[in-house]
Amino acid sequence: MNSINELSFLEELKDLLNQDRDYYKVDLHIHSIYSQDGEDTVESIISRASEYGFDIISISDHDEVQAHTYLSSADVDKQGICIIPGIEISTYNEAYGSMFHVLQYGFSVGDHSIQQIVYHNHQAEKSRFKKQCQLLVANPLFRVLSSATPKELEKEIMLLNNSERIPDYIDFGEYLYKLAVEQSATIEDILDIYKESIAIDTCKERRSKNMDNYSWISSRIKERPYEPARMIKKIIANPLTEDSNYAAEPIGNISISNYGQITLDKIKDCFVTVLAHPEYRKALQLNQQERKRFDFLENNFSNKRITDDEFGKLKEIYALPVTVGSDFHYTKQGYYHESDFYLMSKPQLYTFYEALYQKANI
Fold first, then answer.
1. Whole-prediction pTM value?
2. What is the DSSP string of 21-78?
3. Per-residue pLDDT tens for 51-85?
4. How far apart, in whole angstroms, are the C-alpha atoms of residue 144 and residue 188?
5. Coil, strand or helix: which one is 298?
6. Which domains does the chain have, with CATH numbers?
7. Torsion angle, CA of 318/111/113/294, rounded to 10 degrees?
8. Predicted confidence band at 3 (pLDDT cuts at 50, 70, 90)?
């Protein structure tokens, strides 16, 4: 059971609900520098939320709670914002496939079950990193830019990463972009190499999916500003064409959906549990017992894998209330330009508060 002191956010939520107002501005899915692919400090996240008039936020990093450790130990000005402890847990489900993420809210940082999840997934991520280095050396783009062995690649990426965290997909993108810059190769040159490698792939299905990916990236870089490393990441880690899914010769795709991360049945039902950025067809693959593990569905601003109509249908099928989140990883994403998306009505917020309160066993 959590102590009252650790659950001060409940009192803050209660105070907000007692105000004479109909709506609240809420973002329950934000990533900080403590996520492997996050770029914003805790302070900058709070300042941005304050600038846009948010009442409630949650920093929900990937398999990590260091942001909340920092918040509880450092003298951080929350600028009047209620900050709810959150975590985005990477899980694996064979029926769902890749991107099966679970959000949990309302824990204390030192909770044993949360720490077990963090430890388990960190070990799995270390294993994934080594496997990704082995895969990447077979990638045509990598072979043009480097002749490093998997062991050498591990060391080079760790040096570039320059932190204690386990390297993630974005670190591979940044590493290859660094090599490209050193060799005066542009993003257009990289796309040409990608297109050439697709053309010689003997697997028809994989070739088609990678061609779709190539077309999307080509259009994306013409439409609006982009970060080259993130585009390269999309080239070398297409979740639709994982090497393990095909009997054909590997092409060095570093996307790995199953790397030993925790499974849903091992996540304890002692905190508010939310299905993050759901994909319609994948979410329908979950059985009734698995669906019952969730208290809410997330309406995620950055989720392009589901339409508004599909989300509405899914909400009816699951018969669950909804949370809202931006999935912000860095400020340049600009996810707050559609301000009304983040409005939760008083009844919606009360439902969330009530779930947090009940799980806290107070």
1. 0.91
2. -SEEEEEEEE--TTSTT----HHHHHHHHHHTT-SEEEEEEET--HHHHHHHHS----
3. 999 999 999 999 999 999 999 887 899 999 999 99
4. 14
5. strand
6. 5-66+77-107+270-359 (3.20.20.140), 125-245 (no CATH)
7. 0
8. very low
